[in-house]
Amino acid sequence: MDSLRSEPSLLSFRGVTRTYGEGEAEVRALDGVDLDIQQGEFVAITGASGSGKSTAVSILGCLDLPSGGEYLIEGHPVQSLPADVLAALRNAKFGFVFQAYNLLTRTSALDNVGLPLIYAGLGVAEREKRSFEALAAVGLAERADASPNQLSGGQQQRVAIARALVNQPEVILADEPTGNLDSRTSAEIMQLIARLNVERGITVVMVTHDPKSAAWARRQLVFSDGRILSDTVRA
Amino acid sequence: MSLRSTTSVAFSALLRNRLRSLLTVLGVVIGVAAVLTMESLGQGATAYIGNTISGMGSNMLMIVPGSPNQRMGGGASNAPLFTTADLEALRRGTRDVELLAAVSQRPLRIVAGGLNRNTVVNGASPEYLEIRLWGVSRGRKLTRDDERLGAQVCLIGATVTRSLFPGQDPLGQELRVHGVSCRVVGELEEKGASAFGMDMDDIVFMPFTTFTRRITGSDRLGLIVASARSPDRIDDAKEQLTNVMRARRRVLPGEDDDFAVRDPREVQAVLDQVTGVLTTFLLGVAGISLLVGGIGIMNIMLVSVTERTREIGVRLAVGARGSDILSQFLVEAVVLSAAGGVVGIGIGIAAGWGLSGVLNLPFVVPFAAIPVAFGVSVLVGVIFGVFPARKAAKLNPLAALRFE
User: Fold this and answer.
1) pTM
2) In this structure, are strands B223-228 and B153-156 parallel, antiparallel, or unpaired?
3) Could you tell me if B398 lies within 8 Å of chain A, comparing CB atoms?
4) Partner-chain contact B318 A121, CB within 8 Å
């Protein structure tokens, strides 16, 4: 049992609910979810649209807070933390990868990757050095000066992954990372994410529609109507 | 996040929208430029008037007949003119007066060769040009001997030389003033136009004695000019002159004077007052322009916050705090407004330079106004940038990321 372990889980939900709206218009995106994710896991979350999987990832990444229940990071509840501490957590502990890449336009790949480092308080020289290393790790060192509109979708997603990586986070949270990509590019991106999980021990939590992408993960969660329908770990 | 990186982020955001940035700050540019132009011209005018008044003579006082309440140069009065005896009494009865000069003037026809001209002819004792710090550009000045002997000599202004002796050396030439012949012994330094637009070089000076004996036939005089021993004695000198004249003209205690002792600094005070009113008015106009400019900045910053909602979401997701977003947008507004201020300062100084040329005023760079104008434009950016920046900082990260 998880609760008997001496080490608390890296991320854990205790009866987490998340509702939007009020009264009759109330929508329950998450409905009492219990979930523990350990250091180094690779978790894929699937489920129909509106099943609550994106909401779960947003709460995991401290972009959103539960309406009820508790979210603990290494045993510490998150709800009561001030906004600036949540920002610092997002900066240091998590890296985000989005379906739409969300790169800043008219900004070079290198500067996009360096964005989290600005908020970590690093100087220009250190930012450029680490951004360049992160770009090299995703195989885009030679496109450092390119702006997003000069890059293909797959390349843009690599830049986004480099941005998620640059602060050496413990967890990468990916919301449909291959949703805008063709199957060959999807495979390349999934390979990159899997490699970060295996080689660097980064915990990965990924929301996806695509069974092929989900198959890269060892642990599969299926969400339905704001609850976990199944939780299986591949042998 | 350091101020330096915030500023560079702000600069790059503004440069992405050059035309929009430019149009946005036009109000600030115009407001600041108006203030700078006005300051430049105002200081130029003040300097000009100051020069003119100090060019009238050092520590000069003028005694004229008529009530002191009468406007300067305001028409004829019934008060009797002064006499040379008054002059003597003043010389003896005042401690802080250095020089005293009698001046009598009349517009007269002057003739030389086949040419003639109507000009202002002055009979003045030699001290007059001394008090007025007015030298000669060639020839010699009038002397006490000229005065004592009633010599038939005269000094002429540059305008007179040009119209009566074109292309010639006027020295030693004969000039007929109202039928009286006199020899030109010197030409006065050019003074240009007076503060009231009169040509100061269209003038002839003769010894006072010559003028009164041969031309007017009366030693009554309409003006006595005096100089105080030093600038801090002007008020004392004025009081002493007043006391002597009251005694001479038998003005009873409690009665109004029938003469006035004028101080050219009074003119400056009046002109300063006029300049002050204009300054206040133009500052009001500039203030309105800055207000409109500030509202323009607020408007465009609100648009910018909406446009860049997703960018704000991304920044928040990668660890920006609300205060980072706040300072980013605030710095952007301030950079925008301050840049407008800098452009406005440049345009204002350029306009001041151009207009001072047109208006024939000395060009003055209003150094004191530059930091003030810059400070005000920064302040406008802060005041009108706070609201949009706070709006940006309060965005929910998730909602901002999902904003379409």
Assistant:
1) 0.71
2) unpaired
3) yes
4) no
Domain boundary assignment for chain A: 39-65+80-233
Task: Assign B174 to helix, strand or coil.
Answer: strand
Instruction: Answer whether A219's CB lies under 8 Å from A38's CB.
Output: no
CATH 3.40.50.300: does it fit domain A39-65+80-233? Answer: yes
> Distance from CA of residue B142 to its chain's centroid?
32
- Nearest Cα of chain A lies from the Cα of B2 at a distance, in angstroms, of 7
ipTM above 0.90, yes or no: yes
Judged by a CB distance cut-off of 8 A, whether residue A90 touches chain B is: yes
* pLDDT tens per residue, range A64-120: 999 999 999 999 999 889 999 999 999 999 999 999 999 998 889 999 999 999 999
C-beta separation of A119 from B319 below 8 A: yes
* A193-214 residue pLDDT tens: 999 999 999 999 999 989 999 9
The model's pLDDT over B326-365, given as tens digits with 9 standing for 90+, comes to 998 999 999 999 999 999 999 999 999 999 888 888 898 9
Q: Counting beta carbons within 10 angstroms of the beta carbon of residue A16, is it exposed (0 to 12), middle (13 to 18) or buried (19 or more)?
A: buried
The chain B residue lying nearest A101, using CA atoms, is B314
- Using CA atoms, how far residue B124 sits from A76, A92, B106, B130, in Å, is 101, 92, 12, 11
